[in-house]
Amino acid sequence: MPATIIPLTPQEPLFNPQARVCAECGVRKFALFGVLDHAELDNIHVHIASLKLEPGQSLYEAQGSGHAAFTVRSGVVRLERNNERGERRILRLAGRSDLLGMEAMLGQSYAADAVACTPVEVCRLPRTLVDDLTREQPELMRDMMKRWQRALDDADEWLTELCAGPARYRMLRLLLKLTEYADGGEIWLPGRQEMSAMLDMTIETASRLVSSFKRDGLLLPTTPRHARIDHTALAAALRDEASKL
């Protein structure tokens, strides 16, 4: 997994070029360090690593020693682990500006496997860096707690909205969820096995539902792993399914 090190040690009296890389990042205002101003960024004395992953590559593994958290700059990451029956389950997805591996900030091991679904770019935030900054910047700790709560809310949403109810309704809810990670109007389209692991349904059921959505024009594939959504048709289908619950 290649890593590009972005040194943030000040080399100029004011705002150094290396720290400017972080300051000018497109997701910084949404990310954990968004609460830091330019001068505060200039005083960071550790290295932040920018990592790039290809689809299927692991960012970290469950039970692995947690020494860093990660901000997603681009792409989609899935969090997954085995259940008590040894079945692989996808717990949730993470996308642009999401913070992953927050359990590492408490010195805990990672709770799930984090795997790239698409080409992904993340920034690695060492625990020591976050520890130092949260002592000096109380608002950073509050922001991190908000992100932790958002991750818990996302996990609850997956459990209540995507793993309960009729199969067609769950699949429609998944398509709606995937629009949150759309890139240029296209969604990443999970494989049938991934859909099965997300929605607690058989691969055959997932395949049948996707085929029906394609026939109805609701799902418009552009590549084997990307598609466009007819949002009007999706909203109508969701209203129809919800009326049956």
Automatic annotation (TrEMBL):
Transmembrane segments: none
UniProt KW keywords: DNA-binding, Transcription, Transcription regulation
Pfam families tied to this protein: cNMP_binding (PF00027), HTH_Crp_2 (PF13545)
Name the UniProt record assigns to this protein: Crp/Fnr family transcriptional regulator
Location of the Cyclic nucleotide-binding domain: 32-151
Tagged with keyword Transcription regulation: yes
